[in-house]
Amino acid sequence: MSTATTPAPAAVSTAPEHGRTRLLRWWPAAVLALLVVAPWSALPLPGLLDGPVGSPGSLQLLATCLLFGALATGYDLLLGRTGLLSFGHALYFAAGSYATNMFLLEAGLPFAAAAVLGVCFGAALALVLGSVSLRVTGIGFSMVTLAFAQAGSILVSRDPGGFTGGEEGRAAPAELLPSWLVGIDHTANLYWIALAYLVLTLAVVHRAVRSPTGRVWEGIKENERRVEVLGLKPYGFKLTAFVLAGALAAVGGLVHLLLTGGSTPQTTTSDFTLSLLVMVVLGGTGTRWGPMVGGILYTWADHRLGDLAGSGAVADLPAVLRVPLSQPLFLLGVLFVAVVHLLPGGLARLPSRLRRTREENR
Amino acid sequence: MSTIVLLTMTGLGLGALYFLVASGLSLIFGLMDVLNFAHGALLSIGAYGTWWAASGRLPGAGPGGWGFALAVLFGTAVGTLAAVVLELAVVRPLYTRPREQVLATVGVGLAVPALLSGVWGSDARTFPGPEALSGTFALLGADVPVNRLVLVAAAVVVLVALRLFLGRTRHGLVVRAGVEDRAMVTALGIDVRKAFTLVFAIGGCAAALGGALGGLYFGSVDPRQGTSLLIFAFVVVVTGGMGSVTGAAVAAVVIGLVQQFANYYTAAGLGDLAVVVLLAALLLVRPRGLTGRLA
Amino acid sequence: MTASPLLAVRDLRVLIGGRHILHGVDLDVAPQGVTALLGRNGAGKTTTVRGVLGLVPRTGSVLLDGEETVGLPTHTLVRRGIGYAPEDRGIFAGLTVAENLRLAERRGADGPAYGLVHELFPELKRREKQSAGTLSGGQQQMVAIGRTLLNGNRLIIADEPTKGLAPKVVTEVAQVLERAAEAVPVLLVEQNLAVVRRLARHCVVLADGRTAHQGEADGLLGDAEATRRLLGVGRGPLAPFTAEADS
Fold it and tell me: Its family (chain B) (predicted)?
């Protein structure tokens, strides 16, 4: 009934707006274009970045932001799309980094082969551990994934056979990497790789959630029992999501290896996974852009807050302000709690919430 | 022989520490379905509170004798208070959103250690303690540090107190019933949220006491201590059955011993690894092990 | 119904997981005797009861003795004088019989009426120390009903108290409810029409989450056509009192 009456007044106002919304729909392409040409830009962004956009330092930070934006997007495949709270996502990221590094260092494989094998190793690990972890549901699943990730973390830090380099981590062999990926002069190349990884992740996630499988994921997230009633086995669908997210994380590990020039044990810790969780919740779980925005913001804030903490401006403050400001993790932890409480749905839902408030006040 | 005695006592001491963390964790999960990721932070608060008081900053408290007892009391009280604040301010407003409750405790679990390292530095601080507790005593030919015994004694006291509370008091009855069926407790006219605050207070108290005495065991405090113990406490909770205090006690002893012996007799770190893998294995074999009963 | 109802439910709606389970239930519980809540499986009987008690999120109006209770938390509402025996009996299996009863004690003028409970169910006195999980279904139902009688309640809500019980126990439970209803009004969800016929004065029939019929119990159950239409039973004579299968 109501649908029959609404078009008449709406049609008048949408005619000019239609073209605008169609243009607006292309904003991701415009942003992408801007990001692609960013390395040639000498534009200074004081406050946001230390040097001009195209300087190696800025590009390094931007690339890290893009990398974590992508990683958070992949992680949201589990959390926001399938409703799986994994505490072990760091494992597959670290696996991609360490495995590629091992294939380079220990097996002496050429880079391309090592990269492919490294990612395959991460995906295979996700397949094996996912097929085991998914036998339990709810918080049990969270704890099994946490246990496996912790086991991985312990293994890496104990440095069995000198493979992982223990607490120090292990640098990637510069001489075995293609020369265009090594050195400060080639930061732009690494930046483009990070950007490509982000685009790849967004595309994969976007396609996946719109596929028939994606619709089952949504059903699992809403109510797993109901999916079972429809005669579908959630296990296989959940495993697909787990392996896909794991493989994407492994690619991320590979990009991280190139970007930082080595593998570090920090990427194996449960804190690393928790920070992914913070990014996704901050940006908005289950939304197209939310996790990416959360990942980029978190990484940027983490870096900038770290710089801020070391700066003179903070050192001169009274202790009450200086102490919390000098701890990025404290600020991010508090921010996270605040978002969980005050902003259900994260930043991505903020515009629609504001719009609704505005309409209610009108 | 003396090695075995020493390892056993150390394992028991570690188990006692695990129990102090796990008992509260288990009660909180059993009653509220909240896996409290901030529980390690509560332990750290207890540890730092005790360290702060025992370093002579609290009048009357100090590193020796009754002064140290007062410091432990202070640290435990601060931890308990922190737990109550955590429940009232962070967990309670999210009562209808269980997953967000867990997420919020994750945030607190990140923020508190960061704040501690902001205030007192990220390096380990030497933990002061009374002379009497820093020595060793001879047991079957081994020189066993006294602090192991202190931890075990504290854990036994907490276990007995918890069992009396659960078995003999009305509040304990409400907690036991709530672990089984929270909604039904409400339907009998009982405000179960009071029990939530109560178990957080109890859990925070035990964990903070664990932190205070854990300082003796490790000889130092650092901001990440609580978080690194938390994962082993998870193992204990799952092994012992969620919501079961006695189960947690037994599991804590087993895990503590297994970890110590495996770490000593095989490669270092293998014990930790074994315990963590045990967690996964247990959950897979007994997925229902998560819903335990109080005993 | 001449006297004003003890419990007046108006336009009760319940939405769970984005799905409407109740679309607007109206019902009155008479100030005396048993009011039966009937309907086919899935009609929303249990959800109505849970909605009245605030155990599921609900909208609408629920007046207890003229006072609005929607918006009150369950425990506050229950303390105003409601005894509830839920569908699955709501027994705490790990607690003893005595502990199950003690949990239900509320501070009142007269103190808990253990005398009455033990007189009606001598079995519970004998099994005081037994773990409730090891009781038979009938004994568990006795604990559940015993809990509702312990306090001086204004209203007792019993959700399918005879479900899955042996015929002899069904009779026993029905007798206890009949006696309880002499003092306190009872809202009884029941599938066993013989029990309804024996106990209920008024009845409310739900269908698809709405009130489909409300009136005198005799009127409905005497009309075979209406009974069949509303409850989906009644081909041939009504099921005899004891032959209740778990439907």
Answer: Belongs to the binding-protein-dependent transport system permease family. LivHM subfamily.
